[in-house]
Amino acid sequence: xxxxxxxxxxxxxxxLPLNAARANDADGKLxxxxxxxxxxxxxxxEISVNGVPAAANPFDPESIALDLEVMQPSGQRLRAPGYxxxxxxxxxxxxxxxxxxxxxxSWRIRWLPLEPGRHRLVVTATLAGMLAAxxxxxxxxxxxxxxxxxxxxxxxxxxxxxxDGTPLFLNxxxxxxxxxxxxxxxxxxxAAY
Length: 193
Fold this sequence. Notes:
It is flat, with a radius of gyration of 24 Å. The longest helix is centred in the N-terminal third of the chain and has 23 residues, at 3-25. The relative contact order is 0.18. It starts with a helix and ends with a helix. It has 193 residues and is α+β, with helices and mostly antiparallel strands. Helices cover 17% and strands 43% of the residues. The chain has helices at residues 3-25, 183-192; strands at residues 28-29, 31-33, 45-50, 64-71, 77-93, 96-111, 117-127, 130-141, 150-152, 160-162, 167-168.
């Protein structure tokens, strides 16, 4: 065996344990805290997820990502990304807002059921693109009384309507922006309306 062949074989055997260790990393278990009651169709469901591995920057989706795949009763699949949230205390120092993180933060997923029946939920966490943890659950969704999602009406394509055909008229004023005072500016503007 030549030196280069020996080096390739050695590298191959050295990488085997590394790949096996990566495969074992996916043995992590995620748990989902589902709502206590039975959600309805078109009702936002917020799920907190425990067991998500730590990452240097939980806000960087290339470093860590949390995703939900929903198998609906009809067989269609939906995907919803998760997000990391952390509470902050805020204060003004002079005319500038300063934020201080509070607690460790938590992982959440928001999902909107589109049909009634039993749904299978699979949540996965990936670190640097590699599967790190997984969890499964089922949830029963009740038929609801909500009007549905906003869409462009199909005939003239000039107006919005909800899934059940109810017209959607939007009125409002957007005159907010922030400056050095951050969210304190919004406090002032929203109180004025």
